[in-house]
Design a protein that fits this description.
Blueprint: E1 21-26, H1 32-36, E2 42-46, E3 59-61, H2 65-76, H3 81-87, E4 90-94, H4 96-110, H5 129-145, E5 150-159, E6 166-168, H6 175-181, E7 184-189, E8 203-205, E9 218-219, E10 227-229, H7 232-250, H8 257-261, H9 271-287, H10 291-302, H11 316-333
Parallel strand pairs: 1-5, 1-7, 2-3, 2-4, 4-5
Antiparallel strand pairs: 5-6, 7-8, 7-9, 8-10
């Protein structure tokens, strides 16, 4: 489907937590794991040992990148994803820093290196390991981000030595990806205990406090409250209320995640259909004596001597571009 800028798609917000990406970070014992497991139909991917005191939650203990890849494949396989979604809605990914280390180790072993910053010996055909790690991490985690599940990433906090501000712990190739993709990044702050030594629920901050003693946090939802008493119910309510407020302000009703995603799906190019249409349009142009124009269009995109009918699978986008130009040429002659 070609995009028509005069008849544009209109952006809409999806209701509920389906398809939302949430990053929760903070210190230990602030309720990140406990409250996450109280969200709708959870599955816990444990790269840490944070589930040992919580019973009744479906989980996998992950100790290497290959195992994580296997789990992600099961959650995102288009052949089975609908059946999986009937069982699970929330994927809890605990923790981000550990996944980054596992991915780095995987890349090092794949390329025979001892550490991710190692430089290949002269003459050795080894890629930049940091780049290879970034590509691998983006490829796998990106599948989860597009899956339509509620994905909750759990991370630790660290204090920036220069600014004194608290940030999610992790390198820019892993944590920055998740921070940029998250609909909500919440800093979970401990409130300690009360006078009877009972733990007080933590505070989840959705807005940033800049500078020393402050923290990073943000939300894509303009009308979300700055902070909540951190419980699963309050988190879901804060998002729901923000979406309802957006509806009131814009007058545009929210839709399901599937409905929202229709305007974000990548175009699908069918090689056989494209080649068939190229042949049909090309034959019409040939009959009109435009063989030189056909070759000129092909060579513009395929190089000197390039022929569209020699294109192979994997070149569908190029074929589609050439087909558009052939159609425009034919239209100008009719």
């Amino acid at each position: 489907m070609k995009i028509d800028i005069l008849n544009p798609s209109i952006s809409k917000v999806s209701a509920g937590l389906e398809g939302k990406v949430i990053l929760l970070y903070g210190g230990n014992n602030v309720g990140k794991t406990l409250q996450s497991t109280r969200l709708e139909r959870p599955y816990y991917i444990g790269l840490e040992d944070g589930l040992r005191a919580i019973a009744g939650i479906p989980f996998a203990s992950v100790k290497d990148w290959k195992t994580l890849k296997d789990i992600i494949k099961q959650f995102t396989d288009p052949r089975t994803i609908e059946a999986v979604k009937e069982r699970y809605q929330t994927i809890i990914f605990d923790g981000v820093y550990d996944s980054a280390i596992m991915c780095q180790e995987y890349i090092c072993r794949k390329h025979g290196a001892t550490h991710i910053g190692e430089t290949a010996p002269r003459g050795e055909n080894r890629p930049n390991l940091w780049t290879a790690y970034e590509v691998e991490y983006l490829s796998e985690i990106g599948k989860l981000l597009k899956s339509g599940f509620t994905v909750v990433f759990i991370g630790h906090a660290e204090t920036d030595k220069d600014t004194g501000q608290i940030n999610p712990r992790g390198d820019k190739r892993s944590m920055l990806l998740i921070r940029n993709k998250a609909d909500i990044t919440a800093y979970i702050e401990s409130n300690g205990i009360d006078e009877d030594n009972n733990v007080i629920n933590s505070t989840a901050w959705f807005v940033e406090r800049v500078g020393e003693g402050g923290h990073f946090a943000r939300s894509r939802f303009t009308h979300i409250v700055p902070k909540i008493e951190f419980t699963a119910e309050n988190l879901e309510k804060a998002i729901s209320d923000a979406i309802k407020k957006e509806e009131e302000v814009t007058g545009i009703n929210s839709v399901s995640f599937e409905e929202q995603q229709k305007d974000y799906r990548a175009p699908e190019y069918n090689y056989e259909e494209l080649m068939k249409e190229v042949g049909e349009v090309g034959n019409k142009l040939f009959e009109l004596g435009k063989s030189e124009d056909i070759q000129h269009i092909a060579e513009k995109h395929l190089g000197q001597g390039g022929k569209v009918m020699e294109c192979s699978k994997g070149q569908e986008q190029i074929i589609a571009v050439i087909l558009d130009e052939l159609k425009e040429l034919l239209s100008s002659l009719e």
